[in-house]
Amino acid sequence: MPHVCLVALSGVRVVHPRLRELGLTLPGLRKRAQALAALPALGLLTLAGATPAPWTCSYHEAPGDDEALAQEIAARRPVLVALSALTASVDGAYALSGRLRALGLPTVLGGLHASMCPDEALQHVDAVCIGDGEAAWPAILADARAGRLQPRYRAPADLARAPLPRFDLAADKPRPRFTLQTARGCPLACEFCGASRLLGAFREKPLELIERELDAICALTRRPVIELADDNTWAGSRDHGALLRALGRRGVRWFTEADWRIGRDPRLVRQLAEAGCVQVLMGVESPRMVPSGMGPKQANVNEVLDSIENLQDAGVAVNACFIAGMDGETPQTLEELADFILACPAADVQVTLQTPFPGTALRRRLLREGRLLPCAWSAYTLFDVTFVPERMTVAELERGFEALVRAVYSAQAQQARATIRREVSRETELQSWE
Ligand code: SF4
Predict the structure, then answer these.
(1) Which of 71, 268, 294, 359 can pair with 116 through a Cys bridge, CB separation 3.0 to 4.6 Å?
(2) Residue 101, by phi and psi: left (phi above 0), alpha (psi -120 to 50) or beta?
(3) Residue 251 dihedral angles phi and psi, to the nearest 5°
(4) How far apart (Å, rounded) are the C-alpha atoms in residues 248 and 267?
(5) Residues 156 and 173 sit within 8 Å (Cβ to Cβ)
(6) Does residue 231 have its Cβ closer than 6 Å to ligand 1?
(7) Ligand 1 centroid vs 102 CA: distance in angstroms?
(8) For residue 428, what pLDDT band results from cuts at 50, 70 and 90?
């Protein structure tokens, strides 16, 4: 039977030596990195679900290029190896692809980075899947089996015909976490966003398919923990009540990503809590800087803080996400950002550096302005400076960001947020999601 190996290049990386050291030593950062690494690559599980008989498939995760993994894959004698990587891990994917091709195994690469940089990717892999993978997948497999793999595949997926992901392939971990997608993209267009519309227009999955996926996950484990792997779950026009009832009926614990508007509707907030939502990852971005394209997400900071408190009063913890280094930022505003975050009532926070990922409006603008640094893709970690800031030097941004990270993830700040989490959380087990 023909076999395909699905390989996710996973893990969080940092290039800057002092920040890398901080990532290893500050508990908040370390736990966050571990939690992210534990999430399976939903795109590959979806391809597994779209794999027709008589094909068989296996799922592998790797932190980077690895000779032992290449040998393990080769031992399965696959007809094809499908790789998935983010920008920061794509150099590892290219290197692994080189090893596999040297062993005579054809490779195909998909994901956001490959979709935005297909010419570059084709220097390292045999084929690139641009955009959604599942619609093109049967043709890719058929061509690989016939030995006539084409360099590019592109076929926009219809979410109304989305295959059921093979969640079982990621269920053998000690504490498995599952990802489930209710929509792709986002109707907003924040300048820095690497997810909004790069893989196509905003689309919502029909409720009956979401319910089918929920049932498949619930059949694998009791009271699963699910991440809604959406870019902005509540930004569309679907009947939110029906989706929440579907989640609530199954007794799952879940978390999601949304913009601040989710917390201004008391009815929705109550429904979220009743439906088992334990955490909302909320893009606050910056209390001062306003990137273009935010649309209705742009708000007075007090409205955002009210939204956070509304959600947490109802028992839904908020992980407030901030971006440092946007245009207008100075060493002084970075210090003010640290003060703001330390006073923020959110149960958890996440701080990253603005990063001009391929395909974003931010990257196009910085390229026009001659402000992109000549970095390797491995520096696109969200923790390394990859562009020339507008109102300070690269070294000033690096120093200011390091000080910000030290302040925000200090033991004292972590302790204060742990207290908030205890007050908010109805599920002590979920407090380990830090
Ligand atoms: S709201 Fe979030 S997902 Fe939507 S465009 Fe902005 S950053 Fe991207």
Answers:
(1) 359
(2) alpha
(3) 65, 25
(4) 15
(5) no
(6) yes
(7) 40
(8) very low
Higher pLDDT, 414 or 22: 414
Q: How far is CA 105 from CA 48, 63, 73, 234, 375, in A?
A: 19, 20, 9, 42, 30
Cα 323 to ligand 1 centre (Å) = 13
Give the nearest ligand 1 atom to 285 CA: 7
Task: Report how far ligand 1's centroid is from the alpha carbon of 35 (Å).
Answer: 22
What's this model's pTM, rounded to 2 decimal places? 0.91
Mean pLDDT for 36-57 is 91
Query: Under 8 Å CB-to-CB from 321, ≥6 apart: which residues?
Result: 281, 282, 283, 284, 285, 349, 350, 351, 352
Tell whether ligand 1 has an atom less than 6 A from the beta carbon of residue 171: no
Other Cβ atoms within 10 Å of 397 Cβ, number: 24
pLDDT, mean over the chain = 91
Rounded to the nearest angstrom, the distance between the alpha carbon of 185 and the centre of ligand 1 is 8
What distance in Å separates the CA atoms of residue 12 and residue 33, rounded to the nearest whole number? 6
Inter-residue contact 153 to 114 (CB < 8 Å): no
DSSP 348-360: EEEEEE----TT-
pLDDT at 432: 43
How many Å lie between the centroid of ligand 1 and the Cα of residue 86?
A: 17
Residue 185 near residue 200, CB atoms below 8 Å: yes
- 381 in contact with ligand 1, CB cutoff 6 A: no
- Gyration radius from the chain CA atoms: 21
Lowest mean pLDDT, pick from 230-239, 357-366, 386-395: 230-239
The CA dihedral of 189, 190, 192, 194, to the nearest 10 degrees, is: -40
pLDDT top residue among 221 and 330: 330
- Asked if residue 186 has its Cβ within 6 Å of ligand 1, the reply is yes
Of 192, 196, 360, best ligand 1 pocket probe by most atoms within 8 Å of the beta carbon = 196
- From the CB of 69, is ligand 1 less than 6 Å away? no
2 CA distance to ligand 1 middle (Å): 40
Identify the pLDDT of residue 425: 78
Domains and CATH numbers, the chain: 3-13+43-154 (3.40.50.280), 175-432 (3.20.20.70)
Is ligand 1 within 6 A of the CB of residue 122? no
